[in-house]
User: Fold this.
Amino acid sequence: FCNSPANPILLCWVIDVSLEDGVVRLVETKRMPASTSWLSYCWGKTQIITTTKSTLAAYLEPIPIDVFLNTFRDAVLFTRRLGIWYIWIDPLCIIQDSRRDWDTESTKMSGIYSNACLTIAATHSHDGHGGLFRPAPDIHLTGSTPPGEEYMLFFRKRIDHHHGAILTARETGHATIDHYTLLARSWVYQERMLSTQVLHFGYHELW
Assistant:
């Protein structure tokens, strides 16, 4: 499924998800070629784990994924299930209090999107707690036919397919923007335009 350039050159730091279950670690890539996924999400107001000069050494060792918020943890596990061994998540893969790292890596941001094998978009999540997945319980009805044969019907609510645009409640009859928080962020536009493939984890479905 990966249509990105063959063996794209990675940025300086990526998260290695190929370790045993339950841990990951930050690795310096030495600009080696490898396939990677990339996470697009909303920071929100929640404190997010970040790489700084003081935490860098610790993050080069195995990190329990339990310390990650739901969105990061889901993205790591999903990437691993796809057989991709690296993921790029901005607060971890840029040293946040290093002007030198910001100056170096920010100039290559377009390459992150265009060279990533897959951009994982946490489209419905308001912040790092939202995760990629939402429970979608089935609704079921039971009864019996006139001859007395029992039956059980399973169904789900009508799915809102307005995932291509941010629409107002007046236009759609419901607040679509609440379902697709990520698409309301202007800086996400470049991610969507430059990425070769984007998988949106929406309020009701994937697309």
The longest strand covers residues 23-28.
